[in-house]
Amino acid sequence: MAEEADLLGQDSDGDSEEVVLTPAELIDRLEQAWMNEKFAPELLENKSEIVECVMEQLEHMEENLKRAKKGDLKVSIHQMEMERIRFVLSSYLRCRLMKIEKFFPHILEKEKTRREEEPSILSPEEFVFAKEFLANTETYLKDTALKHMPPNLQKVDLMRTDLLSGSVHMLCPPETLERVSLQWSLLLPPRLPLISRPLHLSSERVLIPKPDLDAYVFLRVKERQENILVEPESDEQRDYVIDLEEGSQHLIRYRTVAPLVASGAIQLI
């Protein structure tokens, strides 16, 4: 991997800016994106440029290995390195797909309401996957449960969202909540994430999981940060401010450091 890779970034004016990376820097960025995605409770911004560049570099490595002498020790070493890179790349993509499957109503609603100048958290392929997963889930639920109910009780809206509380829910008449909940828990296959936790019944909605931004994460500081506001966990506590020194490691709520993860100032570990 002796060639350099070009990435398209954004400068302060919003114009495209080409960033040239060495193969080592490219793999380092892939590993950082992988670790952040693996340990962050929410789906992060997609790194499709990095993924595409890594795949191109893997193709170049395969072409170089075909021209190498058979039996050369370097060939075995390069093959092991290629397998390691493929593992990291595959794990990164699988992690993102698992989050999309688990939180697809929340993610699609967030994608629908984002402003044009904001970057998308989904790649075009991931967006298509999320839409198809939503359609397949609705179809499966209707075919296995709702079609056996009276016509006036067969409507379920997976994309109905309470924007004030941030909760995503299915709208059901009160008299069918227990019946739908039972069918949901018994009939949906284990792969579908909507039953990954018990459904909470109320008079009008059944809650669907969304990312827990108050989960605690380990992190390593890459760039010194000052005056980070830490919100209290209870009413008896007060807000307080901390400084994050470069190279230090912390255990802290994800919500507090989410912007720093997005900017690359810290690394989840």
From TrEMBL:
Name the encoding gene, please: GINS4
> What's the name of the protein?
GINS complex subunit 4
**Top-level taxon of origin:** Eukaryota
Taxonomy, top ranks, is: Eukaryota, Metazoa, Chordata, Craniata, Vertebrata
Annotated organism of origin: Ovis aries
